[in-house]
Amino acid sequence: MPARLRGRGLLRYLPLLPAVLLLLVFLAGPVFWAFQASFTNTGLTGRHARNPEWVGLDNYQRLLLDPVFPLSLGLTVLFVAGSAVLGQNLLGLALAVLMRRARRSVSALVGTAVVAAWVLPEIVAAFAAYAYFSRDGTLNQLLGGLGMGRPDWLYSWPMVAVVLANVWRGTAFSMLVYRAALNDIPTEVAEAAQVDGAGGWQRLAFITLPMIRRSIATNLMLITLQTLAVFTLVWVMTAGGPANASTTLPVLAYQEAFKFGDIGYGTAVASVLLLIGAVFGVGYIRLLREEKQ
Amino acid sequence: MRRPALKSMSLIASALIILTACTPESPESSSKTLKVVYQKTDSFTALETMFQTAKQEFEAANQGVTVELQPIQGNDDDYGTKLALALRSPSTAPDVFYEDTFKVRSDVDAGYLLKLDSHLDGWADWAKFDDGAKAAGRADDGGTYAVPLGTDTRAIWYNKKVFEAAGISLPWQPHSWQDILDTARKIKADDPSVIPFNMYAGKATGEGTVMQGFYELLYGTGATLYDEESGKWVVGSAGFKDSLGFLKTLYGEGLAVSPAEALDANVWKKVFGEWFPNGKLGATVEGSYSPSFWQDGGSYEWPGYAQDMAVAPFPTQDGGAPGAVSMSGGWTLAVGAGTKEPDLAFKFLSTALNRDNSLKFTLDSSQIAVRSDVAGDAGYQAANPFVKDVSGLVSVTRYRPATSDYPRISAAVQEATEVVITGAKSPEQAAADYDAAVTEIVGGDKTVRK
Q1: What gap in Å lies between CA A98 and CA A75, rounded to an integer?
Q2: Which strand (E) or helix (H) includes residue B308?
Q3: In the structure, what pLDDT confidence band is assigned to residue B28 with cuts at 50, 70 and 90?
Q4: Is the Cα torsion angle A68, A72, A75, A77 positive or negative in sign?
Q5: Which residues of B touch A265 (CB under 8 A)?
Q6: Mean pLDDT within B332-347
Q7: What is the pLDDT of residues A63-77, one digit of tens each?
Q8: Chain A residues with beta carbon closer than 8 angstroms to that of B265
Q9: Buried b (16+ CB within 10 A) or exposed e, A219-235
């Protein structure tokens, strides 16, 4: 009875329906809306607020000519590479590896400290980071106490400050992923390598890392996408300043859409951001798929 | 198959009939709701008090009408954004709301505001409103769309103790920009740890940069930002370059705060909360509402402010007429264009803005009165020692050219001040960049060289 079988096959997907509907309404819907709005001159106020006009690729053309856009794109790459791919990823891995060797009390203490930053709501973490890096903040008091001068981090090195803040905030996620992955490595393999005379670094490079490479790819994908979207942290700490020196793409999109009331242009920036995220996402997924084969 | 379907259809039909029968016959007796949206922060509760009182009065006088108060917690920018988003959709648009004067024109363009002319004609109190303030609620078509709550002016606020210590005779009144620089240099020479004369600059302080800083300079040179008659934006003016030049001198000689401090969005909190009360700041350009921060219940209570502080009008570039410059903003109440109950909404607005409520709000938030009966009240005159000084500036004050393009133009001005105080560009370069930015924003045919 092929017809009946087909019916049963379709029926098997029924439980997925609510999830698919939710995704369509809350994820695909806004994405589609943003994409569509980026081809119009929709405004927050003014004559184009209620009656937007279709302007085709005007917003994208403007984007390419806007001197802030390449700067913002570069800063976003710097932010993602510095704070996610290098900072959170490597620090998370290092912590996970070291915590396996550390005494239980030490590892519990470090684990709690790292996870604490992650548990904080983003706005609280952002204010904490602002207080830490600001002119009279904790960091400068420490540096001043050591007689090392008091640089104005948020003004002179805004990107360094936001990258460090994001590393502080997000490392916990990578650490947890890698701890779980490391726990899955059978001890026999490591012991066998040790018997064969492999040193610590060799075991890490030839045994541990290859065995957790799928976790590495997954982790990289997740933290890249998360970091691409970071807004609150940057907005609270520097608001994109000074002189756009820390205006990442989400900050630029917000400024254009809400500060200048140009929703069309703001959504064009957001669409570019979505596209970058999609490229990264597809890249990592393909990487994972090749691993499987 | 057919039977059950018919049955359920008939059931639904009968249910509908019963339900329709239940709805009251006359809509007059049904309960109506007015949605009121306004701003509320920890330090700004005057409006909340005013609306709570108005709600009680209004509900008592209009049986069956419920006023639903929906305060939005946030600073001016965030409030503006949230309000604009709410106005975009008819289902979320409020009936009555708190509206910044500089958004009135663009929100009228967007069709968000109800024209109030016919309602105002029947409101006796309208004659008591100041003509200048009335203009703030008027749109390009000459109609009035918003009723002013209060206004403000800007002047130099200076700390008398700091000035005395530097041997400057009081009361101090500069007659030109040069006088300001001379005094500031004297204070710096006397005590290098004091910030002699601050003016906001850069993008972080947003509208504060232009309203309490750049425009006082620009409008004192004889130049303007926008030519009202031709409806064009002014580019290439000598006044613009001179104003940037003044900021360059002020910041370059260390007479103002360091550029790093100026570019911190929280710098104004230090001005009010730390530097003035602790005698670390000589003078700054600030709004007439300044005492509201220092009064009892303000964010930065400072009992000594009445003795220590003084006000001086900001001078023109070389002392030319009219001798002083001030900028005004202020807020209004408006009725949503999509309201289902325009009469009730306006009635609520006029209750909120009646004499007693206006007086209390004006006192609580250190506003400049826009109603003659409030301005003449003894309580208003005695609210703080500076009411007379700052109210007098209404005669020279200017409003922003608040068209839809204004936010972007303002941002371009802020950018120009930022690159000048950080030393990234010379005033000439920054002015040229500004001209290019304005031409880009409004198009070459909407600019005029002056």
Answers
A1: 32
A2: helix B305-308
A3: very low
A4: negative
A5: none
A6: 93
A7: 998 888 999 999 999
A8: 239
A9: bbbbbbbbbbebeebbb
pLDDT digits (tens, 9 = 90+) for A101-154: 888 899 899 999 999 989 999 999 999 999 999 888 889 888 888 888 788 888
pLDDT at A128: 93
Residue with tokens 């997924």: A285
The answer for residues whose C-beta is within 8 angstroms of residue B159's C-beta and 6 or more apart is B276, B279, B281, B282, B283, B308, B309
Q: How confident is the model at residue A32 (pLDDT cuts 50, 70, 90)?
A: very high
A12 within some domain: no
Q: Domain-by-domain residue ranges, chain B?
A: 31-152+329-399, 154-328+405-449
* Structure confidence at residue A219 (pLDDT): 93
Can you give the CATH number for the domain in which A114 is found? 1.10.3720.10
* Sign of CA pseudo-dihedral B298, B304, B308, B310: positive
Helix (H) or strand (E) holding B374: helix B372-375
Put simply, whether A45 touches B (Cβ < 8 Å) is yes
Going through B175-280 in order, the beta strands assigned E by DSSP cover 195-198, 226-227, 232-235
Q: What is the dihedral of CA B197, B202, B208, B213, to 10 degrees?
A: 40
CA angle A281, A282, A284 (to 5 degrees): 65
CB atoms within 10 A of CB B378: 7
Count structural domains, chain A: 1
Q: Extract the tokens encoding B202.
A: 């850069």
Strand bridging mode B331-335 / B96-100: antiparallel
- Residue B86 touches partner A, C-beta closer than 8 Å: no
Q: What is the pTM of this model?
A: 0.80
A14 within a domain of the structure (yes/no):
no
Tokens linked to A72? 């913002």
Q: Is A135 on the interface with B (CB under 8 A)?
A: yes
Secondary structure element (H or E) that encloses residue A280, with its range? helix A263-292
Superfamily of domain B154-328+405-449: Periplasmic binding protein-like II (3.40.190.10)
- What crossing angle do the helices spanning B342-352 and B46-61 adopt, rounded to 10°? 130
Residue of higher predicted confidence among B286 and B133:
B286
Put residue B147 in one of left, alpha, beta given phi > 0 → left and psi -120 to 50 → alpha. beta
Q: How confident is the prediction for chain A on average, in pLDDT?
A: 88
Q: What integer best gives the mean pLDDT of chain B?
A: 88
**Residue B428's CB: how many other CB atoms inside 10 A?**
12
Query: Is residue A214, in this structure, part of any structural domain at all?
Result: yes
Q: Say if A20 falls within a structural domain.
A: no
| SS3 (DSSP) at B422 | coil
Report the CATH superfamily, name and number, of domain B31-152+329-399.
Answer: Periplasmic binding protein-like II (3.40.190.10)
CB-closest option in B81, B111, B259 to A258: B81
Token digits for B101?
Answer: 């004067």
Cβ neighbours for B222, distance < 8 A, ≥ 6 positions apart: B239, B316, B317, B320
**Strand ranges (DSSP E) for B220-267?**
226-227, 232-235
Q: For residue B415, list chain A residues with Cβ-Cβ distance below 8 A.
A: 243
Query: What domain range includes position A132?
Result: 35-44+55-292
